[in-house]
Amino acid sequence: MIKKFVIETLAEDVGRGDLYALVEPSVDASAKIIAKSDGIVAGRKYIDVLSELESFKLVWFKSDSEVFLKGDVIAEISGDSHTILRIERTLLNMLLHASSIATLTRKYVDIVEPYGVKLLDTRKTRPQLRVFEKYATRCGGAVNHRMGLDDSLMIKDTHLKTIKDLKNYIQKARKQIPFTAKIEVEAETFKIAREAMASGADIVMCDNMKPEQIAEIVAYRNENFAHILLEASGNISLDTIESYAKSGVDAISSGSLIHQANWIDLSMKMD
Question: Which ranges carry the Quinolinate phosphoribosyl transferase N-terminal domain (predicted)?
């Protein structure tokens, strides 16, 4: 899957061929990937595949999930000039995209970790980039939520509109879905959260609730259904996530890790 992604990403940029290479013959060359801002590395495993495919040498000074500071040399590249200049944008785009997500994710993780809360990503990913973007959140320290609809059964508010008897539905679902698949129910009120617990959910997502509302559900869970996991979600930002972590939930999910990640600054400089 990674190889296919890298091949298609490079092909998108190269098109029918690099016009630069038509003018002069190739020469031996080397370059450095330099950080122009602080961040967290992600994308190395994809760029390693690019190196193998395009036969250029790559020496890393930073690993995935490792911190880099402005001015750090992240990697050195060597090979023929045509190759290095052809893969430059593809390499930087993959490194920038993944590292930017990992960098923002780490900011969230640093806030929630002291409270023993897991940070989860979501399915709010760009089309065809789910595996890549969720890999980037892992590099930042998050835990992947569902990769897709076949991962676990989540019953959202839209699903609940079609279900007349939640307990009966969950009982039937247990006979149909894989033994290892969990069932999660999205709850927008205390009433729905209680019903989900009583109906046999493995996880209850407290969606678009205030931290104090979630704290009440946590207390109810602890007293009556200690085995059930609680997740907080919905419009949670860097400014508010600590208050949610203090509520006692087991995990917090946020699509912002991906769709709010602003690109950091990296560049390639030829020696």
Answer: 23-99
Classify domain 115-260 at the CATH topology level: TIM Barrel (3.20.20)
Q: Do residues 193 and 187 make contact, with C-beta atoms less than 8 angstroms apart?
A: yes
How many helices and strands in the chain, by DSSP H and E?
Answer: 10, 12
Burial of 21 (0-12, 13-18, 19+ CB in 10 A): middle
Written as one letter, the residue type at 149 is L
Is the model's pLDDT at 235 over the cut of 90?
no
Question: If DSSP codes are grouped into helix, strand and coil, which group holds residue 142?
Answer: coil
Question: 163 is written with which tokens?
Answer: 């279900």
Under a CB-based contact definition with an 8 Å cutoff, are residues 38 and 70 in contact? yes
Cα 217 from Cα 6, distance rounded (Å): 45
Return the CATH number of the domain spanning residue range 1-109+262-270.
Answer: 3.90.1170.20
d(CA 249, CA 17): 53
CA 26 to chain centre: 39
pLDDT tens per residue, range 81-140: 999 999 999 999 999 999 999 999 999 999 999 999 999 999 999 999 999 999 999 999
Tokens 């200690």 sit at which residue? 226
Domain ranges for the chain, please list them: 1-109+262-270, 115-260
Q: Is 62 in a helix, a strand, or coil? A: coil
Q: How far apart are CA 68 and CA 51, in angstroms?
A: 21
**3-state SS assignment for residue 14:** helix
- Nearest-Å Rg of the Cα atoms of the chain is 23
Q: Which residue has the tokens 């539905």?
A: 169
Contact 46, 5 (CB under 8 A): yes
Hey, how many other C-beta atoms are within 10 angstroms of the C-beta on 147? Answer: 14
